[in-house]
C-alpha cells in the first residue's frame, strides 16, 4: 500500500463498483499495463469479475475475522465432496460466486457474471429460519457476534454461521473448509443413530429437550415444533425431520395431533396418485403425536442432494412474494426452471393444497433439487396439511368452515386432477381411527362438499 495510486484505486471502487479496466485506468491517469500491475499488487483486496474484455473489478470486503473469500463445496449422494466454486464478499453488501466449472443453473440470468446483491440465492435456504432456526441463532450468536434475534441477522451473520456451524445445513452445499471437515467427520463417525424400534422413547425425550430451548439437529425451516434425527435402518441411515404436537389431553394438542395425521394421509394420497411426496410415519408417545418425515436432501449412505426452495428462487429472480403455485409453475416452465411434467405436477400440487384447506401455501413449502443445469427436478411434496383448521395462537380450537375453491376455465383440468386426490384424502381422513371424531366430521363434510363441486365443474 506504499503506492498512493493503490489507495486511489480502492477509493474509486468504494465509490462505484464494479468498474472496467478502461474506466479505472482513465480515472487514475495510468496505462492499462500499469493498472494491471496495481491490481496484482492489491492481491485479494480486488476481485475480478468476468473474463477478458468483459472483466470488471470490485473491492473485496472482509467479514469479521473470516477473510474475504471462501470455497464452496458439494457433498454428493455417495457422500463424496467436490469443490464447486468460491464465494467472495464485495464492498457494500454484495457477493461474487466464481464457479470451478460451468454451473449455468447457479448463474442463470440476471446473475450470469456471478455477482449477487446479497447472499446468493442458492445458499439462501441455508440461512437459519423457523422454529429450529431461532434456537440455532440463540446458540451460536455469541460465537459469531450476531444478535440473538434471528430477525436482525444480516447476510454477514449468515456467512459466519455457515462457516463455523454450517456442516449440516439443508441441501448439499457446504461453505468453507472447517464446515466441510466437520461434515466429513460426521459421515465418517456419524452421531449416535436411533434404532428404529427405540424411536418412541427417544422422540419423547428429544421433544422435551427442544421445548426447553436446546437445539436438536440442523436448522430445518418451519414454525411447527420439530427436531431432526438420524435413524439406523437395514440399508444404512435415514435422516428424518420429526414434528410433534402438544400433549393431546388439551383441545389444541388434540387438534395438532389430527393435523399431523392429516399430513401423513395427504402424502399417502399424493403417492397413490403418482405424485412424489415425502415418506412419513406416525408415532404416539408420552402423550404426544410425532410425525416422522424422511429427508429427501439426505441419502442412506449419509450423502446429500441439492435443494432450493421456490421462495429463494422467487426472491432472486421474480419477486412475487406470494403467488399461486399453478400460476408460478407456468412461468417456471417458460423460463426452463421446470420441465413440462414437473410444471404440471406443481400445478396439481397447488390445487391439491388449496382443496385440502392448506392455508400455508407459501413458496418456502415447495422446493427443487438444485443441480448444475436447468431444468431442476421438483422435490417431493412436504408440509401439506389442512392448516386452515389449526388452533389459534393461544391454543384454542376455533370453528372454521371448509370452502371449495373453484378454478378459472384455463385451470379446470389441473383442478379436476387435484380434486380427485383431495377427495380421496378427505375420505381417508373421515375414516381414520387415529383422528378424533370431531375432525373426522370436518373431513366428512369436506368430502361431501368436494363431491358436489366435482360434479358441477
What can you see in these coordinates?
The chain has 457 residues and is α+β, with helices and mostly antiparallel strands. Helix content is 39%, strand content 16%. The chain has 13 helices and 16 strands. The chain has helices spanning 4-15, 21-28, 32-42, 130-144, 155-165, 177-188, 199-211, 251-272, 310-317, 325-334, 340-355, 412-431, 437-456; strands at residues 19-20, 46-49, 56-59, 69-75, 81-89, 95-99, 115-116, 173-175, 194-195, 226-233, 236-244, 280-285, 288-294, 308-309, 367-369, 377-378. Strands 7-6-5-4-8 form a five-stranded antiparallel sheet. A five-stranded mixed sheet has the order 9-10-11-13-12. Strand 12 (280-285) and strand 13 form a beta hairpin. Helix 11 packs across helix 12. It is globular, with a radius of gyration of 25 Å.
Provide a short characterization of the protein structure.
This protein is of the alpha+beta class and 457 residues long. The protein has 13 helices and 16 strands.
Protein topology:
Layout: H1 4-15, E1 19-20, H2 21-28, H3 32-42, E2 46-49, E3 56-59, E4 69-75, E5 81-89, E6 95-99, E7 115-116, H4 130-144, H5 155-165, E8 173-175, H6 177-188, E9 194-195, H7 199-211, E10 226-233, E11 236-244, H8 251-272, E12 280-285, E13 288-294, E14 308-309, H9 310-317, H10 325-334, H11 340-355, E15 367-369, E16 377-378, H12 412-431, H13 437-456
